[in-house]
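Protein in question quoted for reference:
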Amino acid sequence: MSGTSAAGPGTETLTVLDAMLRSAEYLSGKGIDTGRLDAEHLLAHVLGGGRLEMYLQHERPMTADELERLRPLLKRRAQREPLQYILGRQGFRELDLEVGPGVLVPRPETEQLVDVVLTWARDRKDLVGLDLGTGSGAIAIALLTEGPFDRMVGTDASAAALAFASRNRDALGLESRLELREGSLFETVDSGERFDLVVSNPPYVAEADRAGLQAEVVDWEPGEALFAGEDGLALIREIAPAAPGALRPGGLLALEVGDGQAGRVVELLDAVAAYEDVRVHRDLAGKKRIVTAVAAGPPGKGG
């Protein structure tokens, strides 16, 4: 970006509004569908406030320092780096989480997964949960801050992801309530450990669907957090038979699954004799994206 192509030419004075409009045009010209919105977020980030505050400064001239800080951010977005990575933050329910390269950006569908768990947990207390593939820690932290969970354990095979989860946990003072373990799925769970909840947003994208993903996803987010074999169910096939061994009787298994996968996931769970009450839940778009099952036996604590 140089000359007048985006955030400003050498000596020409640009107002905040000028910078926003030129930045939006630049990003749109690079094929960014959300060019205007992304430009607003990036400019607000540089100005150190929210988008509303930015609008209140529309007529203020941009300083040279502000323009110099804006330009590289626009270039990064033009290269299809996720906006959340550039800003270093992502909202998730009531949380403001740190994210960046090496960790999956939390999605709205996963907020609905948390809702389903909280509904199940409403009349219970002092629960202990296991979050498989915790990533940024979004699910575990949301359950600790919103629900009757006394403690959560989050596992992840990625040290980079756990570093983000650790910082997000520590920022909220949850060090004693969220234990993070490096390892795949149940690898770090002791044979005698039992939980009231096993929850996961596992990788569920089929390799065949790789070509259809946005560049922001396939080129930037960690593939190990996205892809799970030819049909996307490789990790869920591991979780389904193993989870009952980690659940107390009456405990809940809650999984986020891909669009169109719910029926096959139900079949996998029905094939495990240790489950009962297998259910499918719809997300806010009406899609079947969450599957739950209860470990056979009498209810656990508070049930």
Summary: Confidence is low (pLDDT under 50) at residues 1-11.
